[in-house]
What does this fold into?
Amino acid sequence: MNKISSIEAMSLAERVRRVAAVAAEFADQADQQGRFPREGMDAARAERLMGIHIPIESGGEGATMSEVAEVCSILGQACAATAMTYAMHQIQIASLTDHAAESAWHRTFLKRICDEQLLIASATSEAGIGGNLRNSICAIEVEGDIARLEKDATVISYGAHADAILVTSRRNANAPHSDQVATVFTKDQYTLERTSTWDTLGMRGTCSDGYLFRGEAPKNQILPKPFAEIAAQSMLAVSHLLWGALWFGIAADAVSRAQAFVRAAARKSPGQTPPGALRLAEASSLLQLVKSNVVAGLQQFETSAGDPDALSAMGFAVAMNNIKIGTSQTILTIINHCMLICGIYGYKNGTPYSLGRHLRDAHSAQLMISNDRILGNTSTMLLVQKQETSLLG
It folds into this structure.
């Protein structure tokens, strides 16, 4: 049995735990230095986690979205930057798997991702449109068999460390801003000129600098489906679900630290209920709500898989939006409870109960994609979509 097959013969959970142990060891260092969590991502590659969602016939393991979400959750408990990088990569994998499998070039590329354990980034944001991924100013130029693109991307997470980037643009120079395509450019087909640096409150290790992207590639690297379809049926839902899973992981680790603090206090004063015990119970209840929210969303997504009508339905979009809103808001309340439980030991860095990194990373959740933008979209849909009132869906 060769090394690759022996790794894949291990359970996915075992492989992920080994990656998480490495990521946790360097999580504070990556945060403090604002550097890419290379140790965690190198471990993910070594355990061959990069292509697990890709179908078996294309070299992957055919992992379900729930299994990918569990990976994100476990990594989120160890290092949020590693988890976010991995989640963003898997969002691109889902888009390619679900919407480009009919293209020979993209099928070959999916196999290459598995064989070489490539890391895929995306460039959807753009100067002039902010974080509205459903609009583009730049347009791809196709001349003969060659496609060229220049894009002023305000953010490309881990762009300098990616092996390929999935870039959105207008279909052509005459297309409306919402008529978009997505194109895969491999590392040897583009240049990045840094225009802004990523010096942020949290999620510092994602290294989400801004770049002027210039790429040239064969035109068959343009995904065959319109980006509107990719976004509606795959990218947005998968983003909310995998982000929700890793945010759950951040909050779960905070609760674990708070629980350890309460247990230590109980051992010091036998027979007495520690002051933080009731608040811990409340945090545990809220954490269960977050878990239920994400799990229900994953079940709905997997039930709808392969049904374009179900994936494009307003009710489905509202449900996915609500998962993002509820999860991103609730984790801050959970972590704040944990901070109050641990007190100064949670506030200080370098203790077993430190929660500063968790709190700072969690604050990004309401901004990626902006909750206000999502609430605005949901409110528009609810003008015509009946609110779901059945427990059975």
User: Anything to note?
Assistant: The mean pLDDT is 95. Residues 197 and 209 are 5 Å apart (CA to CA). The longest strand covers residues 210-218. The domain at 227-382 is CATH 1.20.140.10 (Butyryl-CoA Dehydrogenase, subunit A; domain 3).
